Amino acid sequence: MSIGMRKFTAVLERLLVLYVFVQVVAGFFVELPYPYWVGWVPILGVFGVGFVRRRAVSREIVAKPPAPVEVGPPVSGRWSALNSPADKVPSHGTHGLGQTYAIDIVAVPEEGPARPAFAWLWPIARGNRAFPAFGAPLLAVGDATVVHAEDGQRDHLSRNSLAALLYFFVIEGIGRTLGGSRRVVGNHVVLDLGEGTYAVYAHVKQGSLAVRAGDEVVAGQRLGSCGNSGNSTEPHLHFQLMDGPDLNVARGVPFSWRGVGVPGNRETFTVREEVTPVP
Question: Is residue 276 assigned to a domain?
């Protein structure tokens, strides 16, 4: 599927979702001038467009699997992997937004409070500082140019309880879909690593970025801090490589962290703490 077609299907999918949302809201106030079943047509369209996009990307990956790109680790210290491409591809259940080989990681300190466990009933939500990943330094995985950097979105409370997850998927899910990719990834940084490879750091902490678009960074340089913005249930880093800077049309690229590899789900790994000072 060409870049132009990927852009077209991405825009069409968002328009269909918006139409469904407007139709549902309008139905509470006025009687819609068409049969009830007509309202299901755009919903089927959303699934249809998404299916076509996923099939096209899957065929491209099967026909010509991309080679993994080795980069440095984006963090230091002790961490654990979630939703890893070492266990399944696409790792997050979708090829959308270049997430085919994306990975989520959470901090696991050797000492101090552990990461709070999932709560079925109470507490419904927790503050971000209860999670050891919140505020942890995010490091450049290589010498690169910053092509996008934003950190104006808020860090919300955790969504790691049953009630909070329902709100997360039903209410926030619709809102973030309508808001586009930036509302899904939250505050984020995109690095141009050269040779057609781009790195994305998602869910960055509000106001923590030390770089801006156009800056040149070196491997190990601090970019900002781990946060809980966007489509995130708790403070963590969502990291991925892509073949372009635009999340809406880029395809995922496999990665391997130097000295670590690709940690599997629940696998704990440690990176020697070393932060390169800003030149």
Answer: no
Q: Is there a domain that residue 231 lies in?
A: yes
Say how many domains are in the chain.
Answer: 2
Tokens (6 digits) for 130 = 């209860």
Q: Is the pTM of the predicted complex or chain greater than 0.85?
A: no
Under 8 Å between Cβ of 72 and 257: yes
Using one digit for the tens of pLDDT, what is the confidence trace for 236-251?
Answer: 999 999 999 998 888 8
Q: Residue 144: give the domain boundaries.
A: 69-271
Helix 40-63 with 3-27: angle, nearest 10 deg: 160
Q: Are residues 169 and 265 in the same domain?
A: yes
For 22-46, write each residue's pLDDT tens digit.
766 766 677 766 665 566 666 667 6
- Same-domain pairing of 45 and 173: no
Q: Measured between alpha carbons, how far is 220 from 242 in angstroms, rounded to an integer?
A: 20
Residue 230 DSSP one-character state = S
Separation CA 9–CA 176 (nearest Å): 18
Residues 215-241 have pLDDT tens digits of: 999 999 999 999 999 988 899 999 999
98, 41, 43, 100 alpha-carbon torsion, rounded to 10°? -20
Is residue 85 within 8 Å of residue 254, measured between CB atoms?
A: yes
The span from the CA of 90 to the CA of 221, in Å, is 29
| Exposed e or buried b per residue across 114-153, where buried means at least 16 C-beta atoms within 10 angstroms of its C-beta | ebbeebeeeeeebebebbbbbbbbbbbbbebebebbbbeb
Token duo for residue 28 = 């509470």
**Shared-domain flag, residues 196 and 90:** yes
